[in-house]
Amino acid sequence: MHFDQRELTALKNQDPKAVKAWYLYCFAGLMAQASRFFTQENEQLTAVHNTLLKALKNIDQFQANTSMQAWLAVILRNELIDTYRRKQRWRILSFEKQEYELHEPQFDSELDEPAEWKRIESLLALLPQKTRFLFGLYAFEDMKPREIATQLSMDVQTVNWHLKIAKQRLKKHLES
């Protein structure tokens, strides 16, 4: 669906009916995308709500008669990356604190059947959280391993290792 200037003006003015209609239109697709990265519903909801709040705050940057879903997908991807970074920082801070020495609708898809998506999601849920997250960026967001590494301040070899593990495990489960 494309939003025209009248609908965007209503969103900019934070018209309650327009905001509610926009929210209901966007929510299901964003939840489907977030579920590819997070297994827990509260993490999915947080990512989607943060995405919608950021989008509403910056609605003046959206161009009328372009794809709202594509614009929101980019905002959600950035939110997922930010969430990952926050989790990593929190984990490092909590380790330092404890003095340990230890250093995750309607989108384009070839899978149209809900049963096929359920199977894919159940297979992804078997992956370790970090591996699942990195594989999601690679497979669903079409990010290159080097791009993922740059965005997450990781070594590209580490990203490649996680992708290799994900592919091996998924292939094993698909063959069985």
Rg, alpha carbons: 18 Å
Judged by helices, strands and strand pairing, the structural class is mainly alpha
Number of helices: 8
User: What fold name goes in the CATH topology slot of the largest domain?
Assistant: Rna Polymerase Sigma Factor, Chain: A
Contiguous uncertain segments of 5+ residues: 92-109
Number of domains: 2
**Record field, number of beta strands:** 0
For the sheet with most strands, the description reads:
none
| CATH superfamily grouping of the largest domain | RNA polymerase sigma factor, region 2, helix turn helix motif
Strand content: under 5%
Average residue-wise pLDDT: 80
Separation of the first and last Cα atoms: 40 Å
Task: Give a description of the structure.
This protein folds into two domains: 1-83, Rna Polymerase Sigma Factor, Chain: A, CATH 1.10.1740; 109-176, Arc Repressor Mutant, subunit A (Orthogonal Bundle), CATH 1.10.10. 72% of the residues lie in helices and 0% in strands. The chain has helices at residues 5-12, 16-35, 41-57, 68-98, 114-124, 129-139, 145-152, 156-175. α3 packs across α4. The N and C termini lie far apart (40 Å). Residues 92-109 have low confidence and may be disordered.
